[in-house]
Amino acid sequence: MSKKAKVLIVDDDALNRIVLEKTLSDEHEVFLVKSGDEALTFIKTTQVDLIILDIVMPGMNGYEVLVKLKEDSATQMIPVIFISANSSHDDESKGLELGAMDYITKPFCSSIVRVRVRNQLLIKQKNDLLEMLASIDGLTEIPNRRNLDENLSREWRKNKRNNTPLSVLLMDIDHFKRYNDTYGHRAGDDCLKAVAQALAAQCERGSDFIARYGGEEFAAVLPGVDKAEATGFANKLRNAVNALNIAHKASLNAEHVTISIGVASTENESIETEQALLEEADLGLYAAKEGGRNQVVAR
């Protein structure tokens, strides 16, 4: 059975909330709030798939709520349907220009509301799928570099806002070119896929993030993790790849596939940008390779 979509209804009129809930609750999981402020507070802790938003409300009106939603990267893609007793074309035009996906006038027809909500959720589902496909590496099926950049940027802002540690790992399969030259590119692809899945399997926290960085390189973003913890996690990743025991007779440091890892953390006060954090991890990776490979170096 498919998971029900979460729909948030924002309306100061209790009767409208009850009718809309009754209209939609058979197909969707419905949440009710009576003001714009309550809506913005609610979505900070609960992810919703669609918002039905009244325009005329005490305090913050629907237009102002929509502007706030569009300003926040975490909520800007949530489809919004305005619902209002005002049938003015100017009001409808203003709502659509601000980014609303649809406009329903009161009194509304329940069957029309159901269809319009269903249509917007279908569009969102397709857009979400396209976004996911654009952010996944086609070979390894883990997040790609674009996804990594977005994740790191988001976690960097959170780190600065909350003053919590943030660590980054850069990883490289040791002597991968020699592996490709010896076993062929198809075997090389299989090796990349196996390593990627082994790395991803070690992520036990929901916030841990591993991506393909490019070629035979991988990266990890670890929010709330200091340098010591990141180093421990890096060794866990290194051991997971060793445990695959993928034969590599052309390697100059082992008889099987290994990885080298560089670690960097915001505990290093000289790091002032997210790019500098990556560069510091890259220096650690370089040191790990120079030191004999199949090891972790923390900066």
Automatic annotation (TrEMBL):
GO cellular component: plasma membrane
Domain GGDEF: 164-299
The protein's enzyme class: transferase
CC cofactor: Mg(2+)
Coiled coil: none
Domain (Response regulatory): residue spans on this chain: 6-121
InterPro entries: CheY-like_superfamily, Diguanylate_Cyclase, GGDEF_dom, Nucleotide_cyclase, Rev_trsase/Diguanyl_cyclase, Sig_transdc_resp-reg_receiver
Assigned EC number: 2.7.7.65
PTM sites of type 4-aspartylphosphate: 54
Highest taxon of the lineage: Bacteria
UniProt cross-references to SMART domains, sorted A to Z: GGDEF, REC
GO biological process, one term: negative regulation of bacterial-type flagellum-dependent cell motility
GO terms for MF: diguanylate cyclase activity
Record key words, sorted: Phosphoprotein
Catalytic activity: 2 GTP = 3',3'-c-di-GMP + 2 diphosphate
Name of the protein: diguanylate cyclase
Species per Swiss-Prot/TrEMBL record: Pseudoalteromonas translucida KMM 520
Source organism phylogeny: Bacteria, Pseudomonadati, Pseudomonadota, Gammaproteobacteria, Alteromonadales
